[in-house]
Amino acid sequence: VIDWTARLARRARTTPDLIGGILALAGARDLINFSGGFPDPSLFATDVLGDLARKLIENDAAVALQYSSSEGIASTRAALADRLAATDGRRPADAELMVTSGGIDAITLIAKTMLDAGDVVVVEEPSYLGAVSGFMAFDPTLRGVPLDADGLDVEALAALLRTLPSPPKLVYTIPDFQNPSGHTLSVERRSALVDLCRRQGILIVEDVAYSQLGFDDAARPSLWSLGPDVVVQIGTFSKVFFPGVRLGWAVGPAAVVRQLSIAKQNSDQCAGALGQRMLEEYLRAGHLEQHLPVARALYRDRAAALTGALERHFDGLATWTVPRGGFFSWLRVPGVDTMALAEVARANKVAFVPGAGFFAEASDTEHLRLSYSRISESDIKEGVARLAAAVRSMRERQAS
Ligand SMILES: Cc1ncc(COP(=O)(O)O)c(C=O)c1O
Q: What is the mean predicted confidence (pLDDT) over 342-360?
């Protein structure tokens, strides 16, 4: 037998399988699964989508079933530009916007385009593990900056920058309802971050994966709207449209976006045209606008069910963040190794993601992420009770 493992690239041998475990659990039926950041399938607009797909295949096959250009179909980009004008208050120029195959594709294109081995990338501690592993594939030096309830600590970032011999290439941030912490960057810190990075010539990668899923009406200017000259905003339609289509966008300085399109030529070349045309028609007909309040209300109710259950079962056992949008709450369970807890929890038929993988630099074993987006309120309550039982049994084991 040939030992293929020995033939793997060094990069592949050192890349941990962080997301595989989450996706492998996706279809599990026998447990209450707080692990993935999945949208709730009851929100998929199947009637509208079936109708749109049929009409496009009947009437627009030459475009919808064909390859598209790497930057995306022009009419789809125009619809996206209109949407950005509505959500961010700024309409990008044609050369500032491209369609990507989801958020992770946008992150990989940026890493491929911007990073030489050893370049410094700053990420929040903790941060989205898909992005961290996307950057890692290009051998950068990752540096972490802490977060608090007001998001990325911009003063801590400024202090880190003072210790570096040259500015980092990228600062990656998720300003709204962050994955995994649930925190949101304050308005004051948004301007401070853009000013700091502009002064030092650092490209900010703003990931707005959950920005449309806030539970209140507070206005939060996007970093890109504050600094279109120093920010590449990446977005995904996975959370608000459907992830089966793998669609997102990157919008930023034309010189960067042009290179991202070129980088796409040797990955998947272009995002799928059928999905792009479906999304475009969906946006133009106003379906997303109608749908978002329904989605926000569903996730808001689930977040409330989660925090209610945590108050009931975890008082004195853990602390947690109260979500104001998005899919996640982030727990700290003092004195408990959450990697080991995951095993005990699986036996209790409940799953979550241990926190360790979300840290780029710091080592942390006490955190875990709960996603409530795809679980009914009654299962949320039952799942939190099972998790609390798992924590108690671990504590008892440690004490004895
Ligand atoms: C913060 C963040 N960015 C990007 C993504 C990836 O999006 P996509 O599924 O479109 O690749 C996710 C998905 O979990 C996410 O949480």
A: 93
Q: What is the pLDDT of residue 284?
A: 97
- The residue nearest atom 5 of ligand 1, judged by CA position, is 103
Range from 22-26, 30-34, 152-156 carrying the lowest mean pLDDT: 22-26
Q: Which residue, judged by its Cα, is nearest atom 6 of ligand 1?
A: 103
pLDDT digits (tens, 9 = 90+) for 27-64: 677 899 999 899 999 999 999 999 999 999 999 999 99
Mutational test site, ligand 1, from 128, 208, 212, 232, max ligand atoms within 8 Å of CB: 128
The per-residue pLDDT for range 124-149, each reduced to its tens digit, is 999 999 999 899 999 999 999 999 99
Residues with a CB atom less than 6 Å from ligand 1: 37, 102-104, 128, 130, 174, 179, 207, 209, 236, 238, 243, 248
Kindly report the protein residue whose alpha carbon is nearest to atom 10 of ligand 1. Answer: 102
Model-level pTM?
0.96
- Which residue's CA is minimally distant from atom 13 of ligand 1? 37
229-239: per-residue pLDDT in tens?
999 999 999 99
Question: Measured in angstroms, how far is the CA atom of residue 303 from the centroid of ligand 1?
Answer: 19
Instruction: Return mean pLDDT, the chain.
Output: 95
Convert the chain into a string of H (helix), E (strand) and C (coil).
Answer: CCCHHHHCCHHHHHCCCCCHHHHHCCCCCCCEECCCCCCCHHHCCHHHHHHHHHHHHHHCHHHHCCCCCCCCCHHHHHHHHHHHHHHHCCCCCHHHEEEECCHHHHHHHHHHHHCCCCCEEEEEECCCHHHHHHHHCCCCEEEEEEEECCEECHHHHHHHHHHCCCCCCEEEECCCCCCCCCCCCCHHHHHHHHHHHHHHCCEEEEECCCCCCECCCCCCCCHHHHCCCCEEEEEECCCCCCHHHCCEEEECCHHHHHHHHHHHCCCCCCCCHHHHHHHHHHHHCCHHHHHHHHHHHHHHHHHHHHHHHHHHHCCCCCEECCCCECCEEEEECCCCCHHHHHHHHHHCCEECEEHHHHCCCCCCCCEEEEECCCCCHHHHHHHHHHHHHHHHHHHHHHHC
